[in-house]
Amino acid sequence: MKKITLFAAFLVAFAFQGNAQTTMTLVSPTGDGGFETADTFEGNGWTLLNHTYGSRKWQIGTGQAGFSGTRGAFIGSSATTVGTTAGSRTVHIYRPVTIPAGATNVQVKFKYKQEVVVIDPATGPNDYVYLSLMTEAPTNGTAAIRFSDKFPSTAAAYPTYTQITAPVPESAIVAGTTQYLVVTFRSTNLNDPATIGWGAIDDIEMTYEAALGTEEFNINKIAAYPNPVKDKLTITAAENINSVSIFNLFGQKLLNQEINATEAAIDMSALATGTYIVNVQSDKNTKTIKIVK
User: Fold this and answer.
1) Which InterPro entries match (predicted)?
2) pTM here?
3) Burial 21-34 (b: 16+ CB within 10 A, else e)
4) How far is Cα 116 from Cα 171, in angstroms, rounded to an integer?
């Protein structure tokens, strides 16, 4: 009887382990998502679309107090100044992400600050930020289709950096395909600067839940080296690699190579010095790696 009980307990434990979930990070709040990798958006893997605005646009720096680390992203006139410019705006920052098949509980967390909010009874807040997940890069100066709420969405402002969680709906996800996580600040406010909201964002984190099984162990075994690379990038995996694609920070695909092996040598000698996003697709997994050349 004791042996049967112990065996049953073992089966329960094994079943629990097979169904356990692990959190995978696509954007880290202490790295690129916190703008701590470099002092430019591009150096952190983000593309900037500020239209032709001279001020009241996305900046990276120290202009909004209260950020984590050494810098944050905010709406202002320079890296150190918010300014007083009024005027309507639609400005974006975005980056490529790949959500694998089977991912659940996909969400984006971030800290947001906006000390002033004015609510129009007909349209809602005059100044706000929102998130989008798109299959194509956003258009400069044009509103993107959002999956999240507007922040702020009520008359309650964010006087300090406040943690916000935005679940990503399944309808917005195209699994295994490179999409673009977009952060948009939008304003229809033409009023006096005293009534204008100045958005600031920091510590962006994008995660998903995955079954803790062979597939997730294998995705962690996909490696690319050396990094930084000079000419040849070697990619290895525990399972068959189907293809490797390389994107620049503007989301443009520069190279796509079919592999069909567990190891690949990618010739990057023709690419200019800079930062690139390498997308590796294996039989059951997709992994995105940032490479510096």
Assistant:
1) Secre_tail
2) 0.71
3) eeebebbbbebbbb
4) 33
- Catalogue the E-assigned strands of 169-270: 178-187, 200-211, 223-225, 232-247, 253-267
Class (C level, CATH) for 22-211: mainly beta
Gap between the terminal Cα atoms of the chain: 64
Q: Report the amino acid identity of residue 171.
A: S
Q: What is the pLDDT of residues 239-275, one digit of tens each?
A: 899 899 998 887 788 999 999 999 999 999 999 999 9
C-alpha span between 53 and 60 (Å, rounded): 15
> For the segment 26-85, what is each residue's pLDDT rounded down to a tens digit?
999 998 999 998 999 999 999 999 999 988 999 999 999 999 999 999 999 999 999 888
Is 222-292 the same fold as 22-211? no
Domain ranges of the chain: 22-211, 222-292
- Other Cβ atoms within 10 Å of 268 Cβ, number: 18
Residue type, 134: M
Q: What are phi and psi of 194, to 5 degrees?
A: -65, -20
Q: φ, ψ for residue 129 (rounded to 5)?
A: -120, 150
C-alpha–C-alpha distance, residues 83 and 76, integer Å: 6
- Cis preceding linkage at 228, omega within 30: yes
- Contact status, residue 119 vs residue 154, Cβ threshold 8 Å: yes
Architecture of domain 222-292: Sandwich (2.60)
Angstrom distance (rounded) from CA 274 to CA 126: 38
Distances (CA, A) of 221 to 216, 236, 239, 245, 265: 9, 8, 9, 18, 16
